[in-house]
């Protein structure tokens, strides 16, 4: 009798497995895309790193138009990108009061440009959010969401009051350095020559971390050195983020995070926003294609009469030169990409699959609660399949293809980052309350 009962259960299980296999086979490409579209429309999609150029925030030239940059309101609407973190970036200058003053003024100009977009240029299309509740409310209203991150704490100078000023202007994350050691901490770029300025955080940087905790600004560790990051995690009372970094185990670049760093962030309760930057995703693939493209690119450069910089050279330019080159680079890359499309046997481009490989790896190491998404659009980011905001759906399609559920996709696209933002805000309120 027991044997018959066991046999009956076994038959049911086997039939169930067959039915599941049949269901999977029924999910054709068209059905998979249709499923992804429905998920994409229901969830909040959030990209934590989109650089800006202030020339695109005027009455005559602005984000309501389909400009040639990677993020505009038309492109966000077409691709279903709901939340764009616009970046107040300031390039590195001398660690002097003169340098800090110039950087601060530049940062304020960028803050004002973002406020002009949401308050004057397109208030009916996009609104500034400063917390997770704002994000969900604005999303439900049908408008796009703007948020603000600060890339490089250099414009803080030596005045701690500037942390609160940036918070009041809408900044909700900040990195303490960029490409070069700042007055606040060492940068990842120190790996190149093993020369460090502070061996992690400076005494001023320690105070800035405390101020960020106090007011509710997320600490971004994407550009600081590994030792800086270790000290930040040891010091902070709140979860941290890496606003645009990927997995070093898959791509050995100093801008990526190794397994030890991933474990630190997991234990801290933070999140890594996987970045769609070609050379941070698959260096070998990127270089194989790039080397083949050089000859064609040089011909285009000569015909256009422009100057080209490799990334190492780019980092040494001042900010104005960097912004000008990024505009030139987009035009040249587009022309070259169109030329090589029909060349048989040409090395493949870094694409959405390579990007989601990093998401898979990070989730495997850290768990689903600690991984998010960023593009670094208009700052050098972009890959085949997600080369601007209009192609955002393709990331969701690939996540569906790999078997992620709607709940998991929502966590990756926005849920995890918004959780950290809320945690940081809650901890800030407790710190402020204890000081009263």
Characterization of this structure:
This protein folds into two domains: about 45-280 and about 350-435, Metal-dependent hydrolases (TIM Barrel); about 285-350. The chain has helices at about 1-25, 30-40, 75-80, 95-120, 130-140, 160-170, 205-215, 225-235, 260-270, 280, 285-305, 310-315, 320-340, 350-365, 395-400, 405-435, and strands at about 45-50, 85-90, 125-130, 145-150, 170-175, 220, 240, 270-275, 370-375. The termini are far apart. The radius of gyration is 23 Å and the shape is globular. Helix 2 packs across helix 15 and helix 8 (about 225-235) runs parallel beside helix 9. The chain contains 16 helices and nine strands. It is α/β, with parallel strands linked by helices and about 425 residues long. Mean pLDDT is about 90; it is low at about 1-25. Strands 1, 2, 3, 4, 5 and 6 form a six-stranded parallel beta sheet that branches.
